[in-house]
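Customer escalation, tier 2.

The customer says the design service returned an amino acid string that "doesn't look like it belongs to this structure." They asked us to rerun it and document both sides in this ticket. The original structure tokens are below, unchanged.
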């Protein structure tokens, strides 16, 4: 089995029974904030796009690059579709001209022509990608590969049961706006960033240890940031709180925990994987590439400057009355929302900043009032979250009817944020569900999730706790760590105060717990 690195989470898998192109991403994503790192735009995409199968793990724009898929991927390719709850991905593919689809039944091995086998695991909670993320398992001639991508299954047992895996490709770096955009003192940002960076690596080691594959390939990040306004997010400034470590850092950290089987794929690297080993050739020595990382980024920044400028020129739509349009779009969804609105539980404020023509800036403050179910001007009140961003970005989102502000505005990192209290996942879940179809799915999911009585308990140290994590049901007998009175679930790092059951990381999500030998506490309540 041949695996060609094509940048970020993308690869092309070649076997004698057919080829699969995965997640080809070349054009900048999220308001021209993210670019693939290392640069992959100079690969021979005409040839790479001539494939038998195409697999895109999910709809995040650094995985689903519509322009690239339209222009460079053969429309004769059969699209391997994860079983997601909505038809959005298939609809998007059809709009780009794809007509051949194989809807892979979730978590079932499918045999394709010539003895090529695949299995797709779709994750479908509202917090997985934009309503869905997935992993692809491939087997040919006894060689097995897992493209875990940036999916976070609770465990990898499904794949280990199918036999030893030879190539495990997974995410290790950050892909979020936290903590950089928060209006916090730099020292706090560094401390939070460092915690996050450590947690990302811990999670990666856990998955690697779960699968015990012959070879581990770090993929799906980091992106690079080429706009001058975002340049500081690249991990080139010696900031230990930077959440975007690159592949060379991965190798160094992996070595510290005893890892010796890591293989970095540059765009154009080719790994030949067999049941007995892997040989890899690179377009240039990997160490040399990373030693010259800053020069690579600076050269790319100059080359891509016109691309960024062209995108920026398309954002402004001053003809849009933002308050009126947000009211029209969002109020019907607030009316429909029970769980998400209750979960947010307070007003969320958007400060829209625009140049005022005299060299200063004007600010319009709009509140999405979840309890009051309305969108209205800010009324000098306490708010749960405050986002501050360029008015042009919101104008653009409203102009194109964007239904997912996470997969556009928030991932762009082109905003700053402040909040009172804990992280609130419902805020982001709501703003990624700005369509009836998505909102109904998310509401139904939370409804089911909250009603599910997960009666099984386990003992961790001095505590009896529910077996499944209140966040996304990770098995706490494997992911849970108790230190004193605090439980940490290592899958996403959420913490819980055991005596009260309170989640210390996010609103809601109470855990059921009591000390060994004491009376059982009351069951968890809805957010
Ligand atoms: S499943 Fe996410 S923290 Fe436990």
């Amino acid at each position: 089995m041949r695996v060609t690195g094509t940048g970020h989470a993308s690869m092309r898998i070649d076997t004698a029974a057919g080829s699969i192109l995965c997640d080809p991403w070349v054009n900048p994503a999220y308001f021209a904030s993210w670019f693939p790192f290392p640069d992959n735009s100079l690969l021979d995409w005409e040839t790479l796009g001539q494939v038998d199968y195409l697999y895109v793990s999910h709809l995040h724009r650094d995985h689903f690059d519509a322009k690239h898929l339209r222009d460079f991927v053969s429309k004769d390719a059969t699209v391997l579709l994860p079983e997601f709850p909505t038809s959005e991905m298939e609809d998007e593919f059809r709009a780009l001209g794809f007509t051949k689809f194989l809807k892979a039944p979730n978590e079932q091995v499918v045999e394709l022509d010539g003895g090529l086998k695949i299995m797709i695991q779709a994750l479908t909670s509202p917090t997985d990608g934009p309503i869905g993320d997935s992993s692809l398992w491939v087997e040919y001639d006894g060689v097995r590969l897992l493209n875990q991508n940036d999916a976070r299954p609770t465990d990898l047992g499904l794949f280990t049961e199918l036999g030893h895996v030879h190539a495990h490709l997974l995410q290790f770096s950050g892909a979020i706006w936290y903590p950089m955009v928060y209006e916090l003192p730099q020292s706090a940002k560094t401390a939070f960033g460092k915690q996050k960076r450590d947690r990302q690596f811990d999670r990666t080691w856990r998955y690697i240890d779960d699968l015990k594959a012959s070879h581990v390939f770090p993929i799906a990040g980091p992106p690079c940031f080429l706009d001058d306004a975002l340049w500081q997010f690249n991990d080139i400034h010696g900031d230990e709180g930077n959440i975007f470590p690159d592949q060379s850092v991965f190798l160094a950290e992996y070595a510290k925990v005893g890892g010796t089987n890591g293989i970095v794929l540059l765009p154009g690297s080719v790994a030949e994987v067999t049941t007995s080993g892997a040989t890899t050739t690179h377009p240039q020595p990997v160490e040399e590439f990373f030693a010259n990382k800053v020069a690579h980024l600076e050269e790319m920044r100059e080359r891509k400057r016109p691309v960024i400028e062209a995108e920026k020129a398309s954002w402004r739509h001053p003809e849009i009355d933002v308050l009126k349009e947000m009211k029209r779009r969002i109020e019907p969804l607030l009316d429909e929302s029970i769980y998400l609105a209750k979960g947010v539980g307070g007003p969320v404020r958007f400060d829209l900043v625009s140049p005022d023509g005299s060299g200063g800036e004007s600010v319009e403050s709009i509140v999405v009032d979840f309890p009051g179910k309305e969108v209205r001007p800010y009324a000098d009140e306490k708010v749960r979250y405050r986002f501050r961003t360029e008015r042009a970005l919101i104008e653009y989102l409203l102009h194109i009817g964007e239904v997912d502000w996470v997969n556009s505005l928030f991932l762009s990192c082109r905003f700053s944020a402040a909040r009172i209290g804990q992280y609130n996942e419902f805020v982001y879940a709501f703003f990624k569900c700005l369509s009836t179809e998505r909102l109904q799915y998310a509401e139904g999911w939370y409804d089911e999730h909250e009603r599910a009585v997960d009666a099984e308990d386990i003992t961790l140290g001095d505590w009896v706790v529910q077996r499944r994590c209140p966040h996304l049901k990770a098995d706490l007998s494997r992911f849970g760590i108790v230190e004193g009175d605090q439980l940490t679930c290592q899958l996403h790092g959420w913490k819980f105060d055991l005596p009260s059951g309170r989640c210390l990381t996010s609103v809601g999500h109470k855990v059921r717990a009591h000390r060994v030998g004491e009376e059982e506490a009351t069951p968890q309540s809805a957010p």
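Tier 2 assessment: The sequence is consistent with the input. The first strand starts at residue 2 and ends at 5. The CA atoms of residues 244 and 265 lie 17 Å apart. Sent an explanation to the customer and offered a walkthrough call.
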